[in-house]
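Appendix B: complex inputs.
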Amino acid sequence: MTGTTTRTPLTRDRIIDAAVVLADSGGVEELSMRKLGAELGVEAMSLYNHVEKKDDILDGMIDYVFRAIPLPAADSDWRLSIRETALAALDQFVEHPWMVNLLMQRGIYGPSSLRFMDRILGLFRAAGFSEEDAHHAWQMLASHTMGYAFQQMSGGEDKDGWESNSPDLSAFPNVAALTPYLANCEFETEFAFGLEIIIAGLAARLRD
Amino acid sequence: MTGTTTRTPLTRDRIIDAAVVLADSGGVEELSMRKLGAELGVEAMSLYNHVEKKDDILDGMIDYVFRAIPLPAADSDWRLSIRETALAALDQFVEHPWMVNLLMQRGIYGPSSLRFMDRILGLFRAAGFSEEDAHHAWQMLASHTMGYAFQQMSGGEDKDGWESNSPDLSAFPNVAALTPYLANCEFETEFAFGLEIIIAGLAARLRD
DNA sequence: ACTGTAAGCATACGGCGTAAGCCCGTCAAA
DNA sequence: TTTGACGGGCTTACGCCGTATGCTTACAGT
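Resulting structure:
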C-alpha cells in the first residue's frame, strides 16, 4: 500500500474512457482537450503526458468501440455468425454516434479493431471464400453496416432532417413520398433486409 | 456595358467553386474562411456577404458534387441505369475525396442532391418496387457507394495505411494475408462485384 | 534527509469561425 | 451636378481550439 493519494492517477485508458463519455453526450465537436481535462479534474496539457496528440485519443476511442463488439463465434455457420456480429456492430455504432464518422476519418488500425477484422476475415476464409472474395465480403459488410448506422443517426429523437429542417419537397415527389420511411422506419428490419441480400449473394458465390 | 470594374464581383457560386478547388488540393481541413478568402483575393469576412456561415459553403460543396453526377436515364432498364449511375457517383466521390465525409456529417438536403435522390427513387418505383423497398434499395446503394469510395480513398498514391503506417500485423494473419487486396485492388471491379450482388438481390425481390 | 524524475500546471502562440462596426465606391433621386 | 443612402469589402476583436515550452511539485529510491 503506497497510501491513496488524493489524485487518482491519469492513464491513457482513463482519458479515452472519459473522451467516449464526453463525445457520447454532446458529439465529437464538444470534445476538446480543455473540456476533457476539466472532466478529469486536470489541465488540458496534463493529458499530453499520456497521449501523443488528440488524434491518439480519437484512435483510442475507435478501438474502444470495437472492443465492445462481441467477436463472432467461430464454430457455427458463417451466415449466423456474420448476421449476429453485424447486428452487434450496428448496435455499438448507434450507441456511439460519433463512431462512423471518426472511423471514416481515421481508419481501422487499432489492436482491437484489427482483431475484430481479422476474425471476420478468418470466418470467411474458413467458410471457403478465396482471399479476394473474403475481402469483397468484408468490404460489403462494412459499407452496409456503416451506411445504415449513419442513416439511423441522422437526426435525433424526433426532429430529424426529414421532418423539420427539410426544404420544400414539392419538386421531389419521390423523396416526399418516402419521407415517412426515411424518418420513422424500423431500422433493424431495414438493416436485416440488406444484410440478407448480401449474405445470400455471398453464399451463391461460394457455391461456384 | 457598365464598364469592367477591377474587381470581379463575389458570388455564392464563385465562393463554392473556389472552396471545392481548395478542398480538392489539400483536404477539407485546409479549407478555412481566411484561406478561401485569400484564394479569391478578398478578406475572410467579405465571404459572409454571400454566405450565411461556413456550413453553408459545405452544403454548397455537397450539392456541387451531386450536380456533377449525370442523372440516370429513365427510359432504359433500371438495372442498367442504376449500374451506370452508381459508377458515375463513385467517380465523383473519388475525385473529391472530402465528399463522403462531408456528406455523412451534413446530410443530403441541397436541391441538386435531392433531385438526384428523387430520380433514383423514381427509377425504383417505376420498376415496380414498393415505397418501402425503394427506400431499402436507395439505402443499400448509397451505403455501398459511399463505403467503397471511402475505402478507395484511404491513403494516397502508394503510401496508404496498409503498406506503410500499419502496425505489426503478425498477430492478425488474415488481415496480413489480405493486405495486397486491401492495398492494390482494382477498385472498380470490386465495386461492381458488390453492386451486382445488390442489384440481383433487389431484382429477386421484384419477382415476388 | 536528499535528490532524480515524472506528473501536473501556467503561459503563450498561431489559427480558427464569426460578431460588430467602419469606409468608401456606386447610383438613384433631386 | 450634387447629395445621400446603401451595400460590399475591410478591420478589429472575442472566445475558442491544439499544442510547444518551461516551471513546480510530490513521490520513490537511496
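Residues 5, 32-34, 44-45, 48, 53-54 of chain B lie near DNA strand C (CB under 10 Å from a C1').
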